[in-house]
Amino acid sequence: MVVRRAIFNQKGGVGKSTITCNLAAISAHNHRRTLVIDLDPQGNSTQYLLGSLEQECETTLVDYFEEQLYRTLEPKGLIGCIHKTPFPRLELVPSHSDLEYLAEKLDSRHKMYKLKEALDSLSHYDSIYIDTPPALNFYTRSALIASDACLIPFDCDYLSLRALRVLLDTVSEVQRDHRHSLRLEGIVVNQFQVTAKLPKRIVSELLDEGLPVLDTYLSSSIKIRESREKSLPMVYLDPRHKLTMQFEELYRKLNLS
């Protein structure tokens, strides 16, 4: 059964795109037909997976959402916006900066269920990962409504801790009002420094509150910058790296739960 997973946090810089692309790459590497949907107008997942090939994409999510707003003679649907990546079994619906300008129109015309409807019609994928923008807006709500599970990246600082409580309320609201079957899969601790006191203290606070912190922590590593610059997820850049093995451990645990 296909699992649709949203990677969501209203705060920027917490690793949404990094986690999205690396989990998706591991999924494809494990012979699962995998799709990434990049809902962030910044397009970080698109750049990460395509690199310079991004310029060759003739269709993006903008085309799909414009079809939901305006009549088109030959609608392509979401499937017409799917592109291959350089990695076997891994495909992508790329983002575009114009998504930002469509959000208000889409919201005012109550199109939040359109992404879910489109994904309901895609039966040939084993896993779908949805990268979301660092905001609570039309696209993040659409992603949560379209998903079976939600992962929350969390980097260990007190600003993130403050924002986390608001974020959890948002997930609960979507569960209550729009998507009863949406499950909070867990909080992914990212950029964890094992020798630093502050990250340990913050994680302890999360656990003391009974929050669903996943027990695989992703290390802080300069290697991830190289991974993004080369548009090579870690499993392809350096399969034996500590961070790669952490991503693989996280992937295994998510797919056993």
Structure description:
It is a single chain. Strand 6, helix 7 and strand 7 form a beta-alpha-beta unit. The chain has a single domain (3-256), classed as P-loop containing nucleotide triphosphate hydrolases (Rossmann fold, 3-Layer(aba) Sandwich). It is an alpha/beta fold. It has a seven-stranded mixed beta sheet with strand order 3-4-2-5-1-6-7, with helices on both faces. It is built from eleven helices and seven strands. The model has no long low-confidence stretch (mean pLDDT 93). The longest helix has 20 residues, at 158-177.
Features:
single chain, Rossmann fold, 7 strands, alpha/beta, 257 residues
Topology:
Blueprint: E1 3-7, H1 16-29, E2 34-38, H2 44-50, H3 61-69, E3 83-84, E4 90-93, H4 99-108, H5 114-120, E5 127-131, H6 138-146, E6 149-155, H7 158-177, E7 183-190, H8 197-208, H9 223-229, H10 234-237, H11 242-256
Parallel strand pairs: 1-5, 1-6, 2-4, 2-5, 6-7
Antiparallel strand pairs: 3-4
Helix pairs in contact: 1-2, 1-11, 3-4, 5-6
Number of domains: 1
Order of helices and strands: EHEHHEEHHEHEHEHHHH
Integer-rounded radius of gyration: 18 Å
- Please name the CATH topology: Rossmann fold
Q: What is the CATH homology-level superfamily? A: P-loop containing nucleotide triphosphate hydrolases
Q: How are strands sequenced across the largest beta sheet? A: 3-4-2-5-1-6-7
**What's the number of extended β-strand segments?**
7
| Text of the CATH class | Alpha Beta
Shape: globular
Instruction: Quote the average pLDDT.
Output: 93
For the biggest sheet, the summary is: 7 strands, mixed
**CATH architecture assignment:** 3-Layer(aba) Sandwich
- How far apart, in Å, are the first and last alpha carbons? 14 Å
Q: What structural category arises from helix and sheet content? A: alpha/beta
